[in-house]
Amino acid sequence: MKKAKILLASLVGSVIEWYxxxxxxxxxxxxxxxxxxPTHDPGVSILIAFATFGAGYAARPIGSIIFGHMGDKIGRKxxxxxxxxxxxxxxxxxxxxxxxxxxxxxxxALLVLLRLMQGIALGGEWGGAVLLATESANKGxxxxxxxxxxxGVPIGLVLGTFSFTLIxxxxxxxxxxxxxxxxxxxxxxxxxxxxxxxxSGIEETPEFQRKKEQGELAKIPVxxxxxxxTKDIFRLIGLKLGDGFFNVFLMSFILVYATxxxxxxxxxxxxxxxxxxxxxIITIPLVGYLSDFIGRKIIYTGGxxxxxxxxxxxxxxxPISTPWFYTMQIVLLGVIWGxxxxxxxxxxxxxxxxxxxxxxxxxxxxxxAAIVGFxxxxxxxxxxxxxxxxxxxxxxxxxxxVISLVLILFAPDTRVVTKYEDDPGDNKITALNNEAKEEEAxxxx
Length: 445
What we know:
The protein has helices at 2-35, 42-58, 60-73, 76-94, 100-103, 106-134, 142-147, 152-170, 173-180, 182-186, 188-199, 206-213, 221-228, 230-261, 266-294, 296-317, 322-349, 357-372, 375-386, 390-409, 424-444. It is mostly helical.
């Protein structure tokens, strides 16, 4: 029961964080470009709107440092409570914002500010949710436990897109643009209350407690992680870049790409996205469980190769017909990317020792997220210049995927070589600290 409660706590917060974050992504192309960034050129409006979407990603490394420091110094639980409040509160306020027609330039300014708050909160949420699960797991089931908070992405996105689909179906276009789009954002406050209640009843993770009792916490985690784990930070960034660009396209920009360049309806694009995310809900725990037997590295490598092979065929197939669009979305996002993502939380966290794990895991992941978050701006420019070119869009994805593939081939198999057990680096640091204390005692005497 205790383990189940911890998994629920890691999942529920992750669901809400991603519900809020992708709610913004869905609304960017459908609503914000018109109501908050109106121009005479719809393409320019979309470009500006996606710049604010990217700003949320850019703010995530800041959150990773702030909440990573707190998580490595005070505890995982305390940090995760604050990320929930920051994320949910900013989303609720977005639902109350006046539009450009009401208050002029202040409307987009306030929207950007709240988007930055979202990004900062999410920068600390993902890593903490993963550690809440993996640091509470036994060694043989860490992959499965690490996959559970990853379910927050598809569940949160399904909830977000379903809410938009439902509201869109129940309202006219005028009603949806006037007030319907606000309802999913306002609903965030209900989800936050539930999540805070669940997380308030859990204990700190055993690994953090042990390090705290042994006096082995880092003084300044972000300094220590760059001092002792620089290679792992950059490895994580590179590993995330490839699937990260494709993920942002498949889960966010696809709504603009499908409606603007391929003439699909908004409802068709939303249904395709919802179906692929529903598939991920099945894929992620199954692959997480499998990774405890065959290893994270094998699954990650196979997933990247499959994405490279299907990158150009994906962009060729989706304009053909709605069934092709749905099928390719489900295969690439629901199955292949779902398999990659299922392993990431555990794989990346196993690169870092407990004393800096929250900071290292969050910072590396969120720097990569900050880079890929500006993908929609790049793709908007590509679409303007080249249209829906399979070679241009597919080629872009392949280049970033190859970078990740090369890095995973040279990465350790973390199922075998992990820093979750006693880490030599930790022992060395502890020995140096003890020597310094003994030397200080001698000097004082």
